[in-house]
Amino acid sequence: MAKKPSAAAPAAGRYRTGVYPGTFDPVTNGHLDIIGRAVKMVDRLIVAVAVNIGKGPLFSLKERVAMCRREVATLKLNGTTVEVLPFDNLLMDFVTGHGADLIIRGLRAVSDFEYEFQMAGMNTRINPKVETMFLMASERNQFIASRLVKEVARFGGDISSFVPAAVYRDVRAKYKT
Questions:
Q1: Rg for the chain (alpha carbons), in Å?
Q2: How far apart are CA 128 and CA 124, in angstroms?
Q3: 30 with 108: CB under 8 angstroms?
Q4: Is the pTM of this model over 0.85?
Q5: Closest to 121 (Cα-Cα) out of 109, 135, 131
Q6: pLDDT grade, residue 13 (50/70/90)?
Q7: What percentage of residues in the chain have a pLDDT greater than 90?
Q8: Which fold has domain 17-142?
Q9: By the 8 A CB rule, do 45 and 7 touch?
Q10: pLDDT confidence of 54, banded at 50, 70, 90?
C-alpha cells in the first residue's frame, strides 16, 4: 500500500512558494511563530514587508526588512528557503511576480478574520490560482499586535515578552527609554 502524503505536504514533484505579507512594525514573537509554522507548509517562503505608509510606521521600510532578516536568521527553518523582501505594489502582483501560489496570513481573533476573509475574497477574485491559508496564532501569541507593542513601549511599558531581545532594543532606541 502506498504511503499517503501528509496534509501539509505539497503534491509529488510540486514546489510550493508562499508569501507571508505584513508591515512588521516591529516584528513580534507572533510574527515569528507564524513564520516558524509556515515553513512546514512550503518549500520557499517570502516574508513580504509592506511599505504601508498609511499605518505611520515607527521603523522605515529598510529598518523593518533588516529587522525581519535578522530575526528570521534565528529560526529553525525546516530546510525551507526564506527570503525577506520589501514590497510597495498590489499584493497579488508581488505574489505572482515571485512565482508564489499561496498567501499565508496569521489570525489572532475573530476580529482579524472578518478583514482577512474580505481580503482573501478580493485576492481570489483577482487571481483564483493563488490560495490564502490562515494560521491561527498560538495561544501564547494571540494578543500580540505590533500596534499594541508600540503603544506599550511609547509609555515606557515592558515589551520584552512580546518581541525578541534585539527587537526590544530597537524599539527602546526609537523611543529613547
A1: 17
A2: 4
A3: yes
A4: yes
A5: 131
A6: low
A7: 71
A8: Rossmann fold (3.40.50)
A9: no
A10: confident
**Per-position DSSP letters for 117-159, written without gaps between them:** HHHHHHHHHH-TTSEEEEEEPPGGGTT--HHHHHHHHHTT---
- CA-to-CA distance for 26 and 12, rounded, in angstroms? 37
Strand partners, 19: 46, 103
C-alpha–C-alpha distance, residues 141 and 162, integer Å = 8
Q: Which grid cell sits at 77?
A: 527553518
Active-site positions? 31, 55, 108, 146
Q: In what order do the strands lie in the sheet with 44-50?
A: 81-87, 44-50, 17-22, 102-107, 131-136
- Residue identified by cell 505579507 is 21
d(CA 65, CA 11): 31
Say how far apart CA 126 and CA 31 lie, in whole Å: 26
| Burial class of 145 by CB neighbour count within 10 A (0 to 12, 13 to 18, 19+) | middle
Residue 4 has pLDDT above 60, yes or no: no
Contact criterion met (CB below 8 Å) for 149 and 162? yes
Strands 81-87 and 131-136: unpaired
Q: What's phi and psi for 41, nearest 5 deg?
A: -100, -20
